[in-house]
Amino acid sequence: MAIPKDPDTLQHMKEVELKILIAVDEVCKKLNIDYALDGGTLLGAARHSGFIPWDDDIDLLMPREDYERFIATAQEYLPKEYKIRTFLNTPEYPYLFIKVDDTRTLLVEENLRHLNSGVGIFIDIFPIDGFPETKFKQKLYYLKCRFYLNILSTLFYDKTDNLWPKPYRMYIALMQALPLNRFKIQKKFDAYMKKQKLNSSTLGFSPTAGTGKKIGVNKNILFPTRRGKYLFEKNDFKVPNQSEEYLIWSYENYTELPKEEERYPHHDAFVSFQKE
To answer: Phi and psi at residue 223, in whole multiples of 5°?
Structure first.
């Protein structure tokens, strides 16, 4: 086991993640499934032509219809060592987005180390749904999504974990004492997001992506996706239609490097490259 802030471990993780991304890209070509680089992965492509040197993950976005089709059909086309992980097929899986992981490895996120999901080094794929058109409905939708996310986080976190301040540990313990079924809540939240149809909306939004944004982005900025804009580690992956506008929406001054003391991996985890 090692901590991914170690440079050698971080580099090895990136190599595993890049191989997964290349395999996913090939499957998406074969099945005509749309996707785009997202988050720090898109930022890395634009600013570094690859990984942000201190970053430790890969993020993709998919329109909901393509996302569901990927879950339903892509597994048989992926190399046998890669698995699509969802809360429906992986016990104690806390997320409402999917991961594609390398089952020959193991990655245990620090704040979820008490769970036994058995997920390896992975890439994240987030669904893009629609977003309401009026300000009132937008605020209501955002607040309800935050409500679901907050409940699920408290139900999956370890109430004894000293990572959290004592008042929050007490809150977690209180929530976990209630007769709440986290799997049923996941299904309900998933169904709620799917009701926001991207095709009938002018905005795209992913509540599970963790951008902190309270409003959707114009879907014409996202779609149609395209190739030939940036290289990521010498590979031409798909990116949003108007990548600069999307990066400004996501990060504002995206060309500026963060302060040196902020340049470190943001996910604490233990990693094993060979499962025992």
So the answer is: -130, 150
Backbone φ, ψ for residue 46 (5° rounding): -70, -40
Q: How many residues does the chain have?
A: 276
CB 157 within 8 A of CB 111: yes
Provide the token pair at 237: 């992956």
Partnered with residue 60 across adjacent β-strands are 37, 125
Q: How far apart are the two ends of the chain, measured CA to CA in Å?
A: 11
- Write out pLDDT tens, residues 200-222: 999 999 999 866 677 899 999 99
Amino acid identity of residue 125, one-letter, is: I
According to CATH, the topology of domain 7-131+200-272 is Beta Polymerase; domain 2 (3.30.460)
Note the pTM of the prediction, 2 decimals: 0.91
Integer Cα distance of 139 and 215 in angstroms: 8
Give the up-direction half-sphere exposure of residue 100: CA atoms within 13 A in the CB hemisphere: 30
Amino acid occupying residue 83: K
b/e per residue 17-46 (b: at least 16 CB within 10 A) = bbbbbebbbebbeeeebbbbbbbbbbbbbb
